[in-house]
Design goal:
- 18% of the residues lie in helices and 40% in strands.
- The protein is an alpha+beta fold and 201 residues long.
- It folds into two domains: 92 residues, Ribosomal Protein L25, Chain P (Beta Barrel); 85 residues, Beta Complex (RNA Polymerase Alpha Subunit, Chain A, domain 2), CATH 2.170.120.
- The strands form three sheets. It has a six-stranded mixed beta barrel.
- The mean pLDDT is 89.
- Keywords: Ribonucleoprotein, Ribosomal protein, RNA-binding, rRNA-binding.
- This is one of the proteins that binds to the 5S RNA in the ribosome where it forms part of the central protuberance.
- Part of the 50S ribosomal subunit; part of the 5S rRNA/L5/L18/L25 subcomplex. Contacts the 5S rRNA. Binds to the 5S rRNA independently of L5 and L18.
- Pfam families: Ribosomal_L25p, Ribosomal_TL5_C.
Length: 201
């Protein structure tokens, strides 16, 4: 999985006053969990653009002053209800031997016969929750639609590899080919024409 480096500064004071001062200075207060002790740090808000405002999934290298580096994933993020500014971010520290859960995007591949016949592809799940050791985390889950006929659904049971586990019920629909209004109307008109032809006979 691709990685993004966030440069930040460790912070000792974590009270409301210091947190407000950080935000006023354009900084985002953050916490890294999962290690021996939580690591409190801050980084410029613009440093998170490539991590937060993207459909892609990334791991994060947190590069703090003094040479301290930690590898983690985004766990939780809080936005201001009005301005949408980032208020706080929680990260989870990665351990090469421990499995971790993460949401990754779904990537559609192939061409659906149902779509070629006028059907409409609907993506029900844009992201899927997966679990694996950090080294096996995928950039995306591939959903091949080459066998989807009109009206067919693609379930999570058809996706994935032995490298990671998809954490969704077996009946979860990832995408489906629905009959479009135009195709439905054409089918109805064809049925009416066939019925009329039979009556004439």
């Amino acid at each position: 999985m691709k990685s993004i480096t966030i440069k930040g500064s460790q912070r000792e004071s974590v009270g409301k006053v210091s947190t407000k001062a950080l935000r006023n200075a354009g900084m985002v207060p953050c916490v890294l969990y999962g290690g021996e002790n939580p690591v409190h740090f801050s980084a410029e808000e613009k440093a998170f653009k490539g991590l937060v405002y993207t459909p892609e999934a990334h791991t994060v290298v947190i590069d703090l002053e003094g040479g301290k580096k930690f590898e983690g994933i985004l766990q939780d993020i809080q936005f201001h209800p009005v301005s949408d500014k980032i208020l706080h971010i929680d990260f989870y520290q990665l351990d090469a031997k421990k499995e971790v859960t993460m949401e990754v995007p779904v990537k559609i591949t192939g061409t659906s016969p149902g779509v070629l016949l006028g059907g409409v592809l609907r993506l029900n799940q844009r992201k899927l929750k997966v679990r694996s050791i950090p080294a096996n985390l995928p950039d995306f889950v591939e959903a091949n639609i080459s066998e989807l006929e009109m009206g067919n659904k693609l379930y999570v049971t058809k996706l994935g590899t032995p490298d990671y586990k998809i954490l969704h019920p077996d009946n979860t629909v990832v995408c489906q080919v629905r009959i479009s209004r135009a195709a439905m109307k054409a089918a109805q008109e064809a049925a009416k024409a066939e019925k009329g032809a039979k009556k004439k006979k």
